[in-house]
Design a protein that fits this description.
- This protein is mainly alpha-helical and about 55 residues long.
- Helix content is about 90%, strand content about 0%.
- It has two helices and no strands.
- The longest helix has 28 residues.
- The radius of gyration is 13 Å and the shape is elongated.
Length: about 55
């Protein structure tokens, strides 16, 4: 996994967590759901990069 792609995936996960937490704190279900979706997208992105790394070696 390149550093840039790894960082992008982690940033996406963190942004999603912040959105989810904020949404829960203010009672905004839409924001909470967006946060969960963003975290999932980051998880998928990270998993994809790990698979690519596994096939490089």
């Amino acid at each position: 996994m390149t550093d840039h792609e790894k960082t992008d995936a982690k940033v996406e996960q963190v942004k999603g967590k912040v959105k989810e937490t904020t949404g829960r704190a203010v009672g905004n279900e839409r924001l909470t759901a967006e946060g969960r979706a963003e975290q999932a997208k980051g998880d998928v992105r990270q998993a994809k990069e790990k698979v690519k790394d596994a096939f490089k070696h």
